[in-house]
Amino acid sequence: MDIGSYILDGNVDAVEFCPHDSFHNVLAASTYVLQEGDCPSRSGCITLFDVDDGKLEMIQKVETAGIFDIKWSPALSENPGNPLLAQADANGYVKIYNLQSHSVSDESELPGNCLNEVHGKCISSSMCLCIDWNSSSTSMAVGLSDGSVSIVSLEESQLNILQEWKAHDFELWTAAFDIQQPMLVYTGSDDCKFSCWDLREGPSQLVFQNRKAHKMGICCIAKSPHDQNVLLTGSYDECLRIWDVRSTSTPVIESSISLGGGVWRIKHHPSIPGLVLTACMQNGFAIVKFRGDEAKIVETYKKHDSLAYGADWQRGDPFEGGKTGRAVATCSFYDRLLRVWTPEGAVFV
Prior knowledge:
Number of helices: 0
Radius of gyration: 19 Å
Strand content: over 45%
Largest sheet: 4 strands, antiparallel
Structural class: mainly beta
Oligomer: single chain
């Protein structure tokens, strides 16, 4: 069932529901626009939405450089009660925004939620293509367009580069912390190499590198929050691969499934193991169930007319407080379209 849609001012490449209690209704979407000409520039924005009671409402827009990726912090370590949103942009900056909630009694502010920039640092002359928090929200892994990866810490209200190394030969589209073992970082690139690094060594030690499994560039890596041995990768070769990483140095492919388009984004369901939402570029969006060596598509969504890039699950109990709960947000690039919808009930059985 469709809840709502919105045409943004730029090409939409990421959507992220806030994972924290009291903010499950907050959805952020980011855009990237290349202004060509004698002096080309890359602009963008973060747009904040309220998704609640079966409706989609825009509440704030923040002008930025062109954005490639955004991620909410998984923990509230630095600002208790206030989630943080990280931005990776085309100007080589990492920026951090604080999500604040204003009540009707705040005379100087309009009621509702809003983002305020609290930190920003240029970490490279290359473009920042992806970003991921560690589980404690004290560090971020940032993939760069020159194939490097930076580990950026957020400590004492400052952003600092802890490590940076040349990890790949081409653009590094995905970098992901291991949720259960945060000393490990996984990276994937247009060079088709799937790599794992141990941050306890400096510069970081290569744990493994698989050069043969992916036939084209690697777009995304997603460690399961439910099973420490399960990791998923997505590639331009249109395959979603489920890996067993029990043996850290020699991961094994448990199963794979073709989704009919480049697998740009993978999102594990926040509470249901073995259920993922995927953005499949030229082939819309697919919800996939997997268990052991079996994987199957259980639902597709094809109401976008352009490249499917961003996707996320809404957190929270759908039966509490009238909130939508199990809604999904998806976005597509060139048609600048954001949609919020609910999957069929059978998906969750």
